[in-house]
């Protein structure tokens, strides 16, 4: 690889628990610089400048979302299946899958969930109030998105604890380094999750309803339709991605408010700022820290040559704090506008569930501020712990005082 960047003291190791707990100081040497070339298990490139990140995400012609085959990928495919997934596919496969799932994952379907999201949120916050304490993750951020996804899919909300455990186990696979075996509980949880939805899909074939699974089963375009494996892959992806990213939006957002008393006061004083505040939460502490692309040919980005097939990590969380794009980028500002962050990606892979995540986050955080007028961090100086994925950044726990 030629023309490597000169960024000093760059450290990138998503398998390091300390790095995972606070990656932001490690992004500092990358700000304002072209892609950084390094080796960690394998050669890789780090893209952190906002303009470079947008350029890569908007260029599916040269940057693939499909990882090149390797023993590590073969091992994961043996567990997770070979059906193309909308997130990890390129046109024309991506175009076809996105068109078909979009027929079921409609704006009106998401909008119709709003009353139920409010009901779920009120019930969860009332339980927390009766306890006299508020553990944000356990009481609200973890259960709410799973309950909403269960509602969408038309499955029993009583199963949400199982869904959450399966989801947490499967996402833990992000932290398995190349060359290491997937833990047994990860593979068993994925098999259980897959078996559950195979049964649910078969049930909808026999007795269709008005839920998302039934709509996906029926989704077709002329003679084309989702195959059984594609359908299962999308439903599982929806549970994992839809649940985890919204959980992290709520948790990371509440932490940012708790650490910035002036901003929480500003928001309490004018709740019409909530849409802007949600965008700032997404920018400031991004639920998805990084995504990967793979050059199809040798490419040049920002004057740096990246060889074909070299994993290229687009660190959207770093791009979201690029001082060249965001004035006072390290400040949390609920009034920030414009705010063209990359938390939901960019280009053809822009997150299909972005409207749902925004709506859930806004409802949940507004309701928490209204239910608990004195809400604040219980222990502002207490160390924080994060769950087992750098790529999906989420707290394990967050205690807030309500009196």
In words, what does this structure look like?
By secondary structure, the chain is an alpha+beta fold. The protein has a single domain (17-369), classed as Cytochrome p450, CATH 1.10.630.10. It has 17 helices and twelve strands. The chain has helices at 17-21, 24-27, 50-57, 71-80, 93-104, 107-111, 114-131, 136-141, 143-153, 160-171, 184-206, 212-218, 228-259, 261-269, 274-284, 316-319, 354-371, and strands at residues 36-40, 42-47, 63-64, 134-135, 220-221, 224-225, 291-295, 299-301, 304-306, 312-314, 376-377, 399-401. The strands form four sheets. Strands 1-2-10-7-3 form a five-stranded mixed beta sheet, with helices on one face. A hairpin with a 2-residue loop joins β8 (299-301) and β9. α9 (143-153) packs antiparallel against α13 and α11 (184-206) packs across α13. It starts with 16 loop residues before the first helix and ends with a strand. The model is unreliable at 1-7 (pLDDT under 50).
Record keyword descriptors for this entry.
alpha+beta; five-stranded mixed sheet; three-stranded antiparallel sheet; 17 helices; 12 strands; globular; disordered N terminus
**Structural domain count:** 1
In one word, what is the shape? globular
- Overall pLDDT confidence: 91
CATH class: Mainly Alpha
Question: Mind sketching the topology for me?
Answer:
Elements: H1 17-21, H2 24-27, E1 36-40, E2 42-47, H3 50-57, E3 63-64, H4 71-80, H5 93-104, H6 107-111, H7 114-131, E4 134-135, H8 136-141, H9 143-153, H10 160-171, H11 184-206, H12 212-218, E5 220-221, E6 224-225, H13 228-259, H14 261-269, H15 274-284, E7 291-295, E8 299-301, E9 304-306, E10 312-314, H16 316-319, H17 354-371, E11 376-377, E12 399-401
Helix pairs in contact: 5-12, 7-9, 7-17, 9-10, 9-13, 10-11, 10-13, 11-13, 13-15, 13-17, 15-17
